[in-house]
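Folding follows sequence. Below is one example:
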Amino acid sequence: MTINKLLGITVFLILISCSGDDNNVDVPDDGTESSVLQQIFGDNIDLSNLYNYANQDIPVYITKDNTDTNVITDAKATLGRVLFYDKNLSVDNTIACASCHQQAFAFGDNANVSTGVNGVTGRHSMRLINSRFARETRFFWDERANTLEEQTTQPIQDHAEMGFSGQDGAPDLSDLLVKLADLEYYQELFEFAYGNTTITEERLQESLAQFIRSIQSFDAKYDIGRAQVQNDNQPFPNFTDQENLGKTLFFTPPNQNGAGCITCHGAPEFDIDPMSLNNGVIGVFGDPTATDLIVTRAPTLRDIFNYQGVLNGALMHDASAVTMVAAIEHYNEIDATGNTNLDNRLRGGPGANGQNLNLTQADILALEAFIKTLSGTNVYTDTKWSDPFVN
């Protein structure tokens, strides 16, 4: 054997030994380098086998849909999922959308106010469950965002929340777009979803909104019962007597000895009436002397509780109701004094001094029992809505 052949064999053996565990790049069986997506997300993001976001089953009795022209696609919702969970969307890489809207709490927060990069949120984080099916197309407690798309990038640009505000020397949204463009996995994801790697605020809004609208919950005890009857006014065969009583009180107007909840929280979506004004809760978290009269929106009543019957966090924008009984008791007796923005439906009878429903303790507990039937199970564990960065 010649010296050249011996040298060739030696070099070959050295190359083999160098291709072992010390190599930072995984080499699949087919001999090609794994993509950046595989390195970052493992099996959580598979562009050849996307989760079903676009064609999920929706009950025939659900008729509301605020999608408008931003129709959900699996590709863009997948991109939206990554953006939703990515802490790179905050200035110091510590806060993601999912930090304040957690899957474990129906995409809300069990903290009274949520922690941001420069402080805390001004109001309790609203649950995002079933956002697609809200009659009210404006978002935030004070409805300052005209669409869900517009809402998605406002927390990113909030100085306290995610920090790309441009205030006090902080970077602004244009800096975020440059930051994301430098991340290789976004080059792959935007190319896949949009056909090129260009990242814009509009594309962030579009894909984040698609992912959020895909988050739905229609496997509750209520849905099982509703499918067995012609309408909500009939007793549900799968309900207890207490749950059916609570349903009747929920749907019956106050002048007929009911609670009249249905006038503001329309079934079967149980979202808020777009014409609603303030609900009588005017507090500001952490400041007992301040008032907040401009809160006129609320999340759906679905999944206020989790599937174990535990609240997914305090109720109301100021987290002032820590139990459902406390929230119902608020509506049982409302003082209209000093509230110039109180919804007329809560002003009561002659004199308009405030609502007094005269609900008994048994009535209140029945209403609570009914509201618990609005909670599903799948939304808390379904992988397609989970954190793709967790391997």
About this structure: The chain has twelve helices and four strands. The mean pLDDT is 92. The radius of gyration is 26 Å.
